[in-house]
Design brief:
- With 329 residues, the protein is an alpha/beta fold.
- The protein is 37% helix and 26% strand.
- It has twelve helices and 14 strands.
- A hairpin with a 4-residue loop joins strand 8 and strand 9.
- The two termini are 36 Å apart.
- Bound molecules: N,N-dimethyl-L-histidine.
């Protein structure tokens, strides 16, 4: 099986909620080729806190770039979207970075905002962050991405357009081709004239990317390593974390950062609740995440293939990152 067929399926996995952590771990770590664990399992309470810390690192500019674009161009983005409009955000988290855009939209007319999250804690944060904004009604949807989006779409009244926010380059955590597949599934839920604001991290010098995913302070390493700690905690496994090291590498052909956990010694690990015993050779890795980097041409191609049209594009120059406004055809 080609290597790419075996890697983590982060966000798409969020919409295949039926498979359990134990089943996914059994499948990924029991794989006869490259071992893997889907990257959606990074985000338990410890992993989410470590991700928040990553977003504050000077080496990791992605989240600040996304935030700068949304703040700086909120009025332009709003102006490109005729009212009346309902907003739905896939994986909103605390929705901190959505505030300025919602304020710009609500200055024109009252706006309903549906943060879509599988975590009730994140939804509560979003309601606290944005619930007090004048002219904004926050109606959280505790659901997988596509199920939540379908519910948001069903709730709108006639004449209302839907604006879907998929920010932070979460699209980059899909496997090759599955990013386009996911856009196609979003498009199926939308009506012509609806919009998708898509955040994509852009290709940039390799050294800059390696620093972002392997910071000298070791926060990214801790984030990655927490996946094994989580398997130990929740699935009664006996990974010895001291016998693994964090690895971040860039595939120049695929334009993809990869994170792996590399075994430093030969070892046997038992994962009781997955009913699995695995053997690792020294140097063998568990692939934990892919993070694709895009060009504008990639976005245009993906949009065209999924019945969207690129209407506008905003870039951050400090940390190459783009927000693309795609209109459903
Ligand atoms: C959530 N996602 C867009 C982040 C990324 O950059 O791919 C997750 C992350 N992985 C390591 N550092 C941050």
């Amino acid at each position: 099986m080609p290597r790419t067929a075996a890697i983590a399926r982060p966000s798409e996995g969020k919409d295949q909620g039926s498979r359990s952590f134990a089943e996914d771990v059994r499948q990924g770590l029991g794989h006869s080729g490259q071992k893997y664990v889907p990257c959606k399992y990074f985000y338990d309470a410890v992993g989410s806190a470590l991700f928040e810390a990553i977003t504050l690192l000077p080496e990791y500019g992605l989240t600040r770039a996304d935030q700068r674009i949304l703040t700086r161009y909120a009025d332009e983005i709003a102006a490109a979207l005729p009212p009346p409009l309902v907003v739905a955000e896939l994986g909103s988290g605390s929705a901190k970075k959505t505030r300025t855009l919602l304020e710009a939209l609500a200055r024109r007319q009252p706006t309903t905002y549906h943060p879509i999250e599988i975590s009730p804690a994140a939804l509560a944060l979003a309601e606290r962050e944005l619930g007090q904004l004048d002219g904004v009604s926050v109606r959280g949807l505790e659901a997988e991405y596509l199920e939540g989006l379908a519910r948001a779409a069903a709730r709108r009244t006639s004449g209302e357009r839907l604006l879907v926010l998929f920010l932070g380059s979460s699209i980059g955590n899909f496997n090759p081709d599955e990013d386009g597949e996911f856009l196609a599934r979003i498009r199926q839920i939308l009506e012509p004239g609806d919009a998708l604001l898509l955040g994509t991290d852009l290709v940039k010098p390799v050294a800059q990317l390696i620093q972002a995913y392997d910071d000298p302070g070791g926060v990214s390493a801790a984030f990655n390593m927490n996946l094994l700690a989580r398997i130990n905690r929740e699935l009664e496994a006996d990974f010895n974390l001291r016998q693994f090291e964090h690895q971040a590498l860039y595939d120049e052909t695929a334009h993809r950062m990869e994170m792996h956990l590399r075994a430093t010694t030969e070892q046997t690990v038992t994962i009781k609740k997955a009913g699995l015993v695995i053997h690792l050779r020294p140097g063998e890795t568990v692939w934990t995440e892919s993070s694709h980097k895009y060009t504008l041409a990639d976005v245009v191609r993906m949009a065209a293939a999924t019945r969207f049209e690129l209407a506008r594009h905003w870039r951050d120059e400090e940390w190459p990152f783009a927000e693309s406004l795609l209109i459903a055809k």
